[in-house]
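User: I'm curious whether this sequence folds into something compact or stays loose and floppy. Could you predict its structure so I can see for myself?
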Amino acid sequence: MKTIYICTDSITGIFSAVHEAWKDRRREGASGIAIRGSVEPELFCEYREIGENEGKAEAVERMILTNLGRNVYRHIYYAALSRDEEKGEAILGTLLAARKLRQPRRIMEHLGSPAVEKVFELSRSVGNEAHLLTGFVRFRELENGILFSDITPKNQVLPCLGAHFQERFPMENWMIRDKNRGMFVVHEAGKRWVLVQEDPGVRGDEGFLHLSDQEETMQALWREFCDTIAIRERENPRCQRTHLPLRFRPNMTEFAGECGIDNFAK
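Assistant: Here's the prediction. I'll summarize afterward.
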């Protein structure tokens, strides 16, 4: 009978489920991982709920880094951040496939394996979105001096952005909110970034978003600058969408309001 380990949609949750599946040492195909809330019951399957366990997750992380290397760990980590509901199954399948290789550190070269191919594609999708957002994130200065930004990504890319902007702004207080998931990455000046879950009871309350006077002035100047340098005669919407996809624009300062900056990027 196949055993399905049901876990939370988080790095810790998925790695905890991998730990349990690995400990049981079942043959390939005899176990699987499903994300809580996306389980479709199947015949002849046993379902086990797995809670988040930091110790087990850290053990899996050490195992991957030690036996498969940092490159493979990066692919698996990025795949775990994907919105794909089958990511847990692909991650477990990749690890089980690596166990049978003489050179397990080269597992990501074995794209003939459906699980490995899936992990590779998910990793690339998350990495591409995170890379784009490092350029499209727009911070606003609040009254209290904190730099704040909203994003609406497809995947859970906050950990990727946290690492990036910690290097760029190590001595600034800043926050980035994932509006789709109600999560924040928060950085206090001189410290390491952390992930924070938004309180469902106050979710959607924008009362804390009071911009500083200087911020409102700078936003107006920035929009005027973008509008001024635009050349209407050379408007090219198709090329513009290549450089600035439509889904990123609602959170970008230069596309806010009624300034009509539709040909900023050509």
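Summary: The mean pLDDT is 88. The beta strands are 2-7, 31-35, 45-49, 140-141, 147-151, 174-178, 183-187, 194-197.
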